[in-house]
Amino acid sequence: MLFERLKADLRKFANPKKKEILQRFFKTGPGQYGEGDVFLGVMVSESRSLAVAYKNLSFSDIKKLLASPVHEERLVGLLILVYNFQKGGAETQKTIYRYYLAHTKHVNNWDLVDLTADKIVGQYLLDNPKEITILGKLARSKNLWERRIAIIATFQFIKCNQFKPTLQIAQLLMRDEHDLIHKAVGWMLREVGKRDKKVEMDFLKIHKHIMPRLTLRYAIERFSPAEKTRVGI
Questions:
Q1: pTM of the predicted protein model
Q2: Is 90 exceeded by the pLDDT of residue 43?
């Protein structure tokens, strides 16, 4: 009953005009990275409010949401996991972390990754550093979204001024062929630079000639002309 109510409430926020925009924005056409993804046209803020309202949804019902072809249903399921992870104790967090990793095939668009990976995977590994090797395994995955999870998860470390995980995963992804990884790596390097410009600049001096141009462009977005010169760009 709760599951069906959630689905009905989600559709109350559906916006046909926004749906058309999102279908194009998230590349849902044949051969594109989001091929087959179905949108209702619901705002993220509305999905967040539903996640809080339905925070007591069972794992079995969350699994149904994650398996849905409807993008916003998967998002709400993931946001429920984030909410309960942030409110839960160590055992709850471990359960949710493992559940998330067991269902990464459903975390299958860049916004789903970006809204959840650092908050669940990143925070869990920050609290349990002995398990951080999982990031290397994700970064080497054939699955695009697992590779993006690996780099975005390090955002939680960046927020705590711990940059080593980001730099290590960035190196592993340096020759990745997908632009969604290029953008994510550049973004995380830029976030490092917001907190310690020298760390970012030292990394760029070493890797600027082998990293994708898109990664470099994202990484130096906030650089002054003088800083670009110092890096040799």
A1: 0.96
A2: yes
